[in-house]
Write a structure and sequence with these properties.
- The chain is built from eight helices and no strands.
- The chain has 278 residues and is mainly alpha-helical.
- 21% of the residues are buried.
């Protein structure tokens, strides 16, 4: 770049540059620079006390302290809401929810009375006409095995009392026939694809023995063969009528005969024992 290409500075800018150069020359000629003293440290600040007492507005004195001062009482909980009215209907609680009642500490008579009430209710649902027979799925949901066990033992005892000899053998044969027959019939229904609980089926078959128990008791009191045949036929028809809706509803309609035929055969065998024993 030639001297002719440079742009001349403004007069004020040139004066500023000259002033800066004069300051630099003056500082060099004046000798070594002096170090200014360090700034003294600032005095410590007073600490602000922190109090754990609650905030009190200015101008209001704190409340007087008392040794007998009690904490403020909590508000009382609201009263429980009363259950809605049922319009005269009984209060029905679902037994499938909540913890079951404690039966270990209750009196023995309460346990016996509850079991007897359950046996009577199940007997009414199975043997006697009632609305639950139209819907077998609703009947005998609260099944038990005490009732069937009692009816099997009672029938075995009546047959053994009716026998003149070998009473213990008659009781053993009757008990084994009824117990094993109920198990075999239940397994037969399950193998046919029946929708039924194993012990519920045992309970049902045991309750259906009630008419045969009544017939065996009548035959023990009356030795006439003709009366025995009539009573056994009526008891046999009553027991078959009681078991028919429950067993037929548990299996496929095409397999209904396969489920009912062994049941009828077992009742006929029991009826034959009642007539034959003398």
């Amino acid at each position: 770049m030639s001297h002719a290409d440079t742009i001349p500075l403004h007069q004020s800018s040139q004066s500023d540059i000259d002033e800066i150069e004069n300051l630099i020359r003056a500082s060099v000629q004046s000798g070594p620079t002096t170090v200014l003293p360090a700034r003294p440290p600032s005095p410590p600040r007073a600490s602000i006390p922190v109090s754990s007492s609650p905030y009190m507005p200015a101008g209001i004195p704190p409340p007087p302290k008392s040794s007998n001062q009690k904490p403020p009482a909590l508000p009382a909980p609201p009263p429980p809401i009363p259950p809605p009215a049922n319009n005269g209907r009984p209060n029905i609680t679902p037994s499938g929810f909540g913890s079951p009642p404690d039966t270990l500490t209750e009196p023995v008579w309460d346990t016996v009375r509850r079991d007897l009430t359950r046996i009577v209710n199940n007997l009414k649902q199975v043997v006697f006409p009632n609305p639950f027979r139209e819907d077998p799925g609703m009947a005998l949901r609260d099944w038990d095995l005490w009732g069937p066990f009692f009816f099997i033992v009672f029938l075995g005892l009546v047959l053994s009392w009716s026998a003149s000899v070998k009473k213990s053998d008659v009781f053993a044969v009757a008990f084994a026939l009824l117990a094993a027959g109920a198990v075999i019939l239940t397994l037969n229904v399950l193998l046919l694809g029946g929708q039924i609980i194993f012990f519920q089926s045992l309970s049902l078959l045991g309750y259906c023995l009630f008419p045969l128990d009544v017939g065996a008791l009548i035959c023990m009191l009356n030795r006439s063969v003709m009366i025995k045949i009539i009573v056994v036929c009526v008891a046999l028809g009553w027991s078959s009528w009681a078991a028919y809706p429950f067993m037929s509803a548990a299996v496929n309609p095409r397999r209904k005969a396969l489920a009912l035929y062994p049941l009828f055969l077992m009742y006929v065998s029991v009826g034959f024992l009642i007539i034959a024993i003398d």
